[in-house]
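Re: weekly structure request thread

Next one in the queue (314 aa):
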Amino acid sequence: MVKDKKLRIAVIAGGWSKEREVSLKSGRAVYNALDRSRYRVEFYDPKVDLKRLIDERDRIDLAFVLLHGRYGEDGAIQGFLKILGIPFVGSGVLSSSISLNKAISKILYRDAGLDVADWILLQKGDCIDPDNIINTLGTELVIKPVSEGSSIGISISKDRDSLIKGLERAFLYDEEIIVERYIKGREVTCCVLGNESLEALPPIEIVPDKRYEFFNYNAKYTPEATREICPAPLSEELTQRVKEIAIKAHRVLRCKVWSRTDMIIGNKKIYILETNTIPGMTETSLVPLAGRVAGLSMSELLNRIVELASEVKD
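Done, posted below.
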């Protein structure tokens, strides 16, 4: 009897975060695209399949984690899988947790010599003076929950009243928020693949429809709501610089296998916004687009990601 040598992959998606529906879409896209001639694939939604995942752990060679936001990108599922002894795609516990935390990651970017917008950190219960915030950072501001993804809870304020509303909205999603100076410019993103040896895929410029003030949740996940131009129409020098920054961010945050770093080009600088350790893989997502431009079909891109995950010894 010939032993089945196919790699047994568990696609893990869904979960409990506010990005559950997007996570399920990413998971289904990856589940459908994984090459069945190479892999045996099972789908697990931890919200309903947690016991099954635990019971079947000895039948899993690799977990392809696509849990976006809390419990997925914050290190929780990574720690759980380590306890179960299941290797997984992507960054480890520490890297995941610091990457999702916008305040900690901004400190690490800054200390590594990368440009970030000026910001302040606020905690629920603080005595907050909107006038002091405006005097410190200016009138146009971006308000963000510290540990949410997919632009959930983010707003842009242009006066005192909208700042107060933005603070109230952000605190609905997190105990900590950051307020940062608004940078007007071109938004680009760049995916990095690798562990020790790193490769940046072609950068993408993101141009939201005029209905959207910025690349928010609806702009990200509504078909045709945003133009994604790949490769981004940048000079050769600027393209190279964007790739270098994405690679440096990947290293600074100790990412593994893959990441996607979002940036704003403005004021003659490239400012880092954030690094995603579990990028979206839906039909409108950016990583598959960059892969296609680099000559990789979805299945080929997933093969590359699985190969990189198999290299990680942790």
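The chain has eleven helices and 13 strands. Residues 7-89 form a domain with the Rossmann fold fold (CATH 3.40.50.20).
Next request, please.
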